[in-house]
Amino acid sequence: MTTRNPEKVILSLSVRLELDLVLARKRARQVALLLGFDAADQTRISTAVSEIARNAFVHAGGGKLEFSIQDSKLPYTFLIKMSDSGPGIANLEEVLDTRQPASGLRGASKLVDKFTVDSTSSGTTVTLEKKLAPRLPFTGSELDGIANSLTKLISANPTDEVYQQNQELLQALEQVSAVKAQLDLVNAELQQSNNELTTLNKEMNDWNKTLEEKVNERTSELQQMNVYLSAARDEAIIANELKSQFVANVSHELRTPLAGILGLTEILVNEDLNGDSKEMAEHILKSGQHLLSIVNDLLDFSKLSVGKSELSENEFYLSSLFDEVVQSVYAQAKKKDITVTDSVAPELSDCFWGDSQRLKQIVLNLVHNAVKFTEKGNVSLKAACLSQDNQATRVCIEILDHGIGISESNQTMLFQPFVQIDGSTTRKHGGTGLGLAISKKLVEQMNGTIGCESKVGVGSRFYVELPLTKLKK
Amino acid sequence: MVERIPILKIGETLLVTIQVDFHDRVALALQEDLTDKIVTHSSKGVLIDISSLEMVDSFMGRVLGNIAKTSRLLDCHTVLVGMQPAIAITMTELGISLQGISTALTAEDGMELLKALMSKKQKRVSHGRQIARK
Predict the structure, then answer these.
(1) What is the ipTM score, two decimals?
(2) Number of structural domains found in chain B
(3) One domain for residues A390 and A375
(4) B2 within domain boundaries
(5) A22 to chain B: which residues are within 8 Å by CB?
(6) Which DSSP state fits A416?
(7) Of A51, A288, A391, B114, which sits most exposed with the smallest number of CB within 10 A?
């Protein structure tokens, strides 16, 4: 009923101590006075409030007392609401029964115009209503005035002031306990999320452990594998050395009988033989010489592989070295109608100091190849100076041809041993496939580099860059 | 800290003036103190001045009633004085009847009443003795 009508609260206080009862009835009297009730009504109201407040204090340990006014509809009323959160009034009808001995509540009901009790097992609210004298609705300033007067009335009495402060403290306490309840709730939530996090963390830890174990397992597997691999590698290296040594020995053994065959065949060729026999003997000689060159290549390569080859040093001129090379391929080039040109940069005309034999072998091999793979056109051999200081002169020797060219993918395999680009070319051009590999090893031994640029059908450019020492005069 | 209401002894009577907040514990303490004093001083009458009391509810009414009944049992009369009219109205409406309590409007009237009550009693006692002598 009271909740339906908008009320203007004048004062509310909590009843917790016995002393609060005194305060409650004093306040009731003061509010009644300020609202214009006469002395008798003031006493009635004060007494009724005392009754309901005591009832709440005795049965529910206290509660909240609220004074308010209802001035939204006639008749305007003064409302006093005492609410507690006790166990409720079980025998409400009996308590209010007029035939029963007088009780506080019933007494209170007789002193006011309207008396309502709303009692459940979770609390009881007793509402008293007292009609106000006919008047205009209360204004805000009027209500403020009442509130101010109440404050002043309190200040008049130090004891009351203490009570009032006590009241305020209690209200603050109530708020604090509400906040605490909220905090507890939040705390509980935090605790829960903390638990969840802990669980998650544990799972993560477990997972980490598993991961670590797996990694360890893999690592040990890898280590084992590494051990195997390095053993295999050592074996392979040893085997390779053995192979090279074997090849070197065998080649050496092969050369001796081959030299015998060649010597005797030469003598035979120079003998007076009839037509067919002479031709056959010449074939034998050619094949033998070819075989010898192959065996020599093998021997060279094997020596280089096991590092047995040593560089010898002597004086030489690049221009005369080039002339010798050109001379060597002259016959072959002439047969295919190819011109071979050579040029040496003027700053390289000095006398050099180094292994001219090896250098010649490299250049010859490259020029030989150039002639071999060129069908027509020309082959040029050039020497240029890249840089020059007191210590060494860096020289670039390049061989250009107009041959069949080498595809890009094949260029990478070019300097591998025993690699010939195409079986068909081998049959056409011959060779062991060791030439470039040997050249590469020799150049590297001389602290140089060897390389190639080529375009299929256009031609190739092979170059050797290496430091040479000028002989000081 | 229970406030105590002072009890003054004047001859055979005890004088109680309630001038503090008459809350429940004070009321109960008064009942006890008063009983003790009646016995200690062999008082014959109690005058309770409630002129500064602003209200009397069912509990206080009961306590005042109990004081009167108890003192009566201890051979002592109780007179309540100075009740404000509004309280009288309220008490009637509440249905509190102070049976066994004599009332007077002022303290002076109250003392007179007490004297009268006590002398009546003494008369009755002397009368009794006279009968016994006879």
Answers:
(1) 0.82
(2) 1
(3) yes
(4) no
(5) 21-23
(6) S
(7) A391
- On whether both A366 and A397 belong to a single domain, the answer is yes
User: Are residues A84 and A96 both part of a single domain?
Assistant: yes
Would an 8 Å CB–CB cutoff place B27 in contact with chain A?
no
* Segment A239-282, tens digit of pLDDT: 888 887 887 788 778 888 888 888 888 888 888 878 888 888 88
* Domain membership flag for residue A388: yes
Residue B1 lies inside a defined structural domain of this protein: no
Q: State whether A40 and B90 contact (CB < 8 Å).
A: yes
Range of A325's domain? 314-470
Q: How many CB atoms lie within 10 A of CB A7?
A: 18
* Domain-located, residue A357: yes
In whole angstroms, what is the distance from residue B78 CA to residue B76 CA? Answer: 7
Q: How many residues can be counted in chain A?
A: 473
Same-domain check for residues A318 and A465: yes
Cα separation, B29 vs B1, in Å, equals: 11
pLDDT of residue A278: 85
Cβ–Cβ below 8 Å for A39 and B86 = yes
Backbone angles phi, psi at B103, to 5 degrees: -130, 155
- CATH number, domain containing residue B117: 3.30.750.24
Domain end marker among A107, A123, A156:
A156
A173 and A240 together in one domain: yes
Position A465 in a domain: yes
Mean pLDDT of A152-173: 74
Residues of B in contact with A20 (CB under 8 A): none
Contact A25, A50 (CB under 8 A): yes
What does pTM read for this prediction?
0.48
Q: Which of A67-76, A401-410, B50-59, B87-96 has the lowest mean pLDDT?
A: A401-410
**What residues pair up with A385 in beta bridges, in sequence order?**
A395
Give how far Cα A323 sits from Cα of A18, A384, B76, Å. 133, 16, 163
Select from A135, A156, A177 the last residue of a domain: A156
User: Do A298 and A334 share a structural domain?
Assistant: no
Q: Give the C-alpha separation, A191 to B5, whole Å.
A: 55
Please, which residues have CB within 8 angstroms of residue A232's CB and are 6 or more apart in sequence? none
Interface test with A, best of B5, B21, B84 (most A CBs within 10 A): B21
Domain CATH number, residue A56: 3.30.565.10
Domain count across chain A: 3
Residue A343: strand pairing partners: A382
- In the numeric block, the tokens 């007191």 are attached to A390
**Distance, in angstroms, between B21 CA and closest chain A CA?**
7
| SS3 assignment for chain B | CCCCCCEEEECCEEEEECCCCCCHHHHHHHHHHHHHHHHHHCCCEEEEECCCCCCCCHHHHHHHHHHHHHHHHCCCEEEEECCCHHHHHHHHHHCCCCCCCEEECCHHHHHHHHHHHHHHHHHHHHHHHHHHHC
